[in-house]
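During the second year of the project, the team shifted from modelling isolated chains to modelling whole assemblies. The rationale, set out in the original proposal, was that interfaces cannot be judged from single-chain predictions alone. As a representative example for this report, we include one of the complexes processed in the last quarter. Its constituent sequences, exactly as entered into the pipeline, are reproduced here:
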Amino acid sequence: MDKGSKNIRTVVFSLVAVLLVLNALIWINVFSSTLTMRMDFTADKLYTLSTGTRGILTELPLEKNEQVQLRYYCSKGKVEMPVFLKSFSRRVDDQVEEHEQAADGKLEVERLNPLPTNNHEEKAGIDGVEGQMTQTGEIIYLGIAISFLDETLALPTLSPATENTLEYDLARAIYRVTHPERSTVGIMSSLPVMGAPAQNPMMGQRGTQPWYFVSELQKDYNVREIETTADVIPSDIDTLVMLHVKDITPGTEYAVDQFLMGGGKLVAFVDPISAVDQQNRPQQMGPPPESMSTLPRLFDAWGIAFDTDKMLMDNGNAAMFSSRQGMQPEPQPFILALGNKWMDQADITTNSLDQVRIAYAGVFEGAGAEGIERTVLLRSSGESMKVDKSKLMFGNSNIRNDYKASDKEHALAVKLTGRLKSAFPQGPPADVDTEDDEETDEPDNHLAEAAEDSAIILFADADMMFNDLWIRPTRSIFGQTVLQVTADNNNLLQNIVEQLSGSSHLIAIRSRTITSRPFELIDEKRAEAEKERRAEVKKYNEELQETDKKIREMRSAKAGTNQQFVRSAEEDEERLRLNKKRSEAVKTIRKLEKEMYREVDKIEKVVTWTNILAMPAAVFIVGIIFWLFKRRRGIL
Amino acid sequence: MTAIRNIRAVTAKELYCYFASPVAYVFFIIFLMLMGFFTFMWGNFFEQGEATLSSFFIWHPWLYLFLVPAMAMRLWSEEQQTGTIELLFTLPIKPWHAIAGKYVAGSLFLGLALVLTFPMVISINILGNPDNGIVLTGYFGSFLTAAAFLAIGCLTSALTRNQVISFVIAVVICLLAILCGFPPVTDAVLDLEVAWININTLVDFIAGFSVVPHFQTMQRGVVDVRDVLYFLSVIVFSLFATGIVLRSKRSI
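Output from the structure prediction step:
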C-alpha cells in the first residue's frame, strides 16, 4: 500500500468518526428535550409548582379515560414576538409543562402555533383566545384555553404583568372547568344591601336596588339572604358574607361558629361606626344613635382584639374630599384611599388591586390564637393613630390637633387560616332558642373542631362596601347612566369570595411575587440624607417662591400703565437685588441637593473602583512576589 | 488508575507553565478588570437598583469570546510548532491523557479566574439582600460556557500549527455559538423558504446550538439537565475531535 492512499484512508476514517460522534450527540440532545429534570435554586422556589396547585391537579374529579384539555396558543417562528413577550412565553412554556407533569396524564396539553396558513387561528377564536397586534402590525397569540366536557375557560391574553398570578390563574381555570356547579353565598347584614321591592308601586314608588356588590355576586353565585338573628346557617351555604351585623346574639355567633366548623368560609365586615347606617336613619333630633358591629365571642376565640370605641385616623392615606359642597377638598384622615403599597403583596386577592377606599374604620389587634395563622391583607400607613370615636363629635380639626403619629402600621383587614376550634367548647350557649328541638341538653350535633383547614377574612370597616364610596354614576353621551367604578373595593370582595368558594388548595396558592431585591444600603443612605436636608431645601424653596412673587408683582404693577417701559433707578436697584437673591437661593438648593446624593455617590464610586481594581492589583502583587522569589532562587 | 495519574501529571505541568510565565497574571488582570469595567460602566449596575449579578453575567459570553480562544490557542499549536508534540507522544501516556490533562488545566485556570471575581458577590451582599442561589447557578453556567469555549479553542488549536489562525477560527466558531440563537440570525434562516423541511423546526434546531439560552436558564436560578447535557456534548465532541485530528496528523 502506498503512502498516499493510506493518508486518504486516515482522513476519511477521521472524518467519519467525527461526524458519527457529532450525529450521536445531536440526537442525544434532541431526545433529551423531552426530559424535565431540573433543580430550582431560587430562594422563593420561583420555578416549582406550589403544593396547592399539585393538590388541585392530583385531585381532579375525573372518570377513567377522561382528560382535561389544555390548548396553549403561542406564536412561534415566522411571526416574531416582541422581546419582552418572548422571554415571558418561555416562562409560560415551563408552567404549562410543569402542570402537565404534575397532573400525571390527567391533563392533555396541545401546543398550537396560530398562523395564517393553518386553522389554529380559527380554533383560538372559538376558544376565546385573542390575538394581539404587535408594533409591526402582526398578530401574535399568547393565551391558554382549558376545557373539560362542555366547559371552556380561556386566559385570552397572557402578559408579563400577570406573571405573579400565572400559576393561580391556570390552577383556578382547571379547577373551575372541573367543578362547574355554582356555589352559594349567604349574605347577612343589618344594612339594606339586598334592596327592597317597591312598597306601593301604584303610587309610583320605586323599590331600591340591591347594593352593587350584591348584584355583582349574583352574576356568579347563588346568593341568599340570611337573617341577622339566624340560629343556624343553612348547610348549602358555601361562603357567608357578614356585613355589619349589629347586636349579634350569642346564638347567631354560635351558628356562625358551627358553620365554620362544618367547613364553611366566612368574610366578615365589622365596624366601630357605620356612617352609612347613621345616614340611613330617619331624621330625628339629637345625635344619631351609635351603629357598631363586632363578633365578640368569636374574636376572643380566634385571638383577635377589636375595640368598637376606637377609630383609625391615617394621615398617610387620607382621601381628598370636600366636606361640604363648594368647599376646597381637604385630606380626610378617616376616609382612607389605600394604595397597592398597603396591601399584602403575596396574596392573590390583593396584590393586583390599585386602590381600596375605607371610611371610619376600626383596627384589628392580637396575633391570632394558637394554630391560627394571621395575615394582614390591608394595613394603614405609619402616620396613623387610634382615636376615641367619641371625639368625632367635636370635628376633624379638634382631632387633628391631638394627632401623634404612632409610627405603627395598623391592621385593617386580616386573613385567618388554620384548623379552627369552636369558640363554644361547652356546646351551644344557654340562651339559644331551640324551638324546633326540645332536647337541648344533648349537643350531639355540636362540632368542637373543624375537619379541615378553613379561612376567614375580616375587615375592620363595613362602609367600604357601600356604593357611593367607589362608584360614580356618570351620564354617557347617549344619555344613559353609567356606573363608573373608581376603586377596587368590589374587586377585592369578588376575589375573596371566588377564592374562598373554591377548593382550599386554591387558597393555598400564594401569589408569586417577583420579589424585588433593592440595594437596601443605598436606599437607606439616600433616605437619610434627604430627611436631613429636606427642611432646609423647603426653606429655600419658599424663599425662592417669595422672590418670584415679588418680581411678578413689580412687573404687573406697571403693566398696562404708560410707565410700562420706563424704570426709575430705585426700581432697577430693587429688581437687581431680587434677581440676585433669587439666583442665590437656586444655587443653595442645587448645593443642598448635591450634598444629598454625595454620600450615595461615594458608596457607588467605592464599590465600582474596588471591584475593578482591587483584585487585579492583588494578582499583580502576587505575580511580582512570585517572580522575585523565583529570581532569587535562580541566582542562588 | 494510571490514566488518572497521567492526567494529573499533565495537568500539574500545564498549570505550572501558566503560573511560571507572566501569561496567567496578565490574563487574570485583564479578565478581572474587563469584568468589573463592563459590569459597572456599561452594565447599569447601579441604575438597575437590583441586588443581582445579571449585569455581570450578561457580559460573560462576550468576554469569553475573545479571552478563552486567546488562552487556548497555544494549547496544541505551540507544541506542533516547536515539535514538542513528538516528544509528548513518545512519553508512556496515551494521547487522550495528554488532551484531558491539558483541558483540565485550562478549565481549572478559567475557574480560578472566575472565583477571583468574588468581590462582586460580597458587594451585592453588602448593598442588599440578593438571592444567592441564583448567583451560584449563574457562576455554574458561566463556568460551563467558558469550558465549552475552551474545548472549541482546544480543537482549533489542534487543527493548525499557527496560533493566530487557531485564535481566529476559534473566535468565529464561538461567535456562531453565541449568535445562532439570536433573532437576526434566526430571521435570516426563516426567510430561506425551503420547501422540503419545516422551517420552524429547523430554526428551533439551530437555535438549540446557541450557548446563550442555555446559560440564561442558569442565570434565572434553574439548573436543567438539558442545559448541562448541551454543554457536556460540546465539550465531549470538541475533545474527541481534537484527539482524532492529532492522531490523523501524526500518521500523515
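Chain A touches chain B through 58 residues (CB under 8 Å). The longest strand of chain A covers residues 139-148.
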